[in-house]
Amino acid sequence: MRIARASIEGTARIIVADEASTRLAPIDHPDDVLQAIASVRAGASGAWEVIDADRLDLLAPVSRPGKIIAVGLNYEDHISETGITKPERPLTFAKYASSLAGPTADIVIPDHLTAQVDYEAELTVLIGRDCGGERPATLDDIAAYTVANDVSARDVQFGDVQWTRGKSFDTFTPIGPWLVTPEEFGDPHNHRIYTTVDDETLQDDSTAAMIFDVAELLRFISDGVTLHAGDIILTGTPAGAGGFRTPPRYLQHGETVTVGVEGIGELRNRVVYRSRLTD
Predict the structure, then answer these.
(1) CB proximity list for 19: less than 8 A, separation 6 or greater
(2) Which domains does the chain have, with CATH numbers?
(3) What's the CA angle centered on 265, arms 257 and 131, to 5 degrees?
(4) How many CA atoms are closer than 13 Å to the CA of 128, on its beta-carbon side?
(5) Of all helices (H) and strands (E), which one includes residue 264?
(6) Exposed, middle or buried by CB within 10 Å (0-12, 13-18, 19+), for 167?
(7) Distance from C-alpha of 217 to C-alpha of 163, rounded to nearest angstrom
């Protein structure tokens, strides 16, 4: 099953897709993808309107996560390119929920604050039920997988020492386009993950190259920390990030960043400097 949110006549609506059709939830259905998954599994979606998703303006499929938890340095080749010591356990940090953006929304760079904005393709997990705390989370607690771009202002990230602000400017977490349930997505460690900027491929790897797999990340992150339904976890990026290339390759005004994970789809976001929004 695949689930998304779309803007239809100015209202956020839920859509679900399977092999048979793509259907639009009724307008009185809550704007809640987890409830939509439950509705479909309960057999309540059979009468929903069949639509053509290709013509829809998709939104971020998760609108109000309580927590966005991201993982750094989780691919061996990425660690090598950064020159940072390989972590002995997962390295985690937070991103603000206000950084979320849709799969085709502009990435708006506050260019009065940063001149070194980077891309990071990431497989992302949506938590489906409250878990963790006393009982670490497992793969069974995952509702769906999606794609995120962990956009990063490197000069702010490393200038601040801690990473949150430089990765949390508005629009710095594009996500989507679809949520894909585990039974359709399959093994999360067997999918191509990539980034292109305009026509240049800059990241191209497999989620099989993760150092800490998804189950390990869940155990670590949720040990002593309650995860709530709707929280999202970004699982790290492979090699090829622009800030660690020679010379560095940062995002420029007018470029289009495409980030994808095989089996889910692609984000396609135009880069816009805030100072040139009227161009």
Answers:
(1) none
(2) 2-59 (no CATH), 68-276 (3.90.850.10)
(3) 105
(4) 17
(5) none
(6) buried
(7) 19
CB distance 103 to 58 below 8 Å: yes
Q: Please state the length of the chain.
A: 279
pTM, whole model, 2 decimals? Answer: 0.96
Residue where the block lists tokens 């938590």: 127
Phi/psi at 44 (nearest 5 deg)? -90, 0
Q: Which residues contact 204 (CB under 8 A, 6 or more apart)?
A: 192, 193, 194, 195, 238, 240
Residue-level pLDDT, tens digit, the chain, 279 residues: 999 999 999 999 999 998 889 999 999 999 999 999 999 999 988 889 999 988 899 999 998 899 999 999 999 889 888 888 888 999 999 999 999 999 999 999 999 999 999 999 999 999 999 999 999 999 999 999 999 999 999 999 999 999 999 999 999 999 999 999 999 999 999 999 999 999 999 999 999 999 999 999 999 999 999 999 999 999 999 999 999 999 999 999 999 999 999 999 999 999 999 999 876
- Please choose, from the candidates 179, 188, 221, 184, the residue with its C-alpha nearest in 3D space to the C-alpha of residue 207: 188
Helix, strand and coil in the chain, % to nearest 5: 20, 35, 45
* Contact in structure between 229 and 127 (CB atoms under 8 Å): yes
Assigned token pair, 105: 């929304």
Q: What residue has token string 């090829």?
A: 240
The CA distance from 158 to 272, in Å, is 22
Q: CA 163 to CA 185: how far, in whole Å?
A: 30
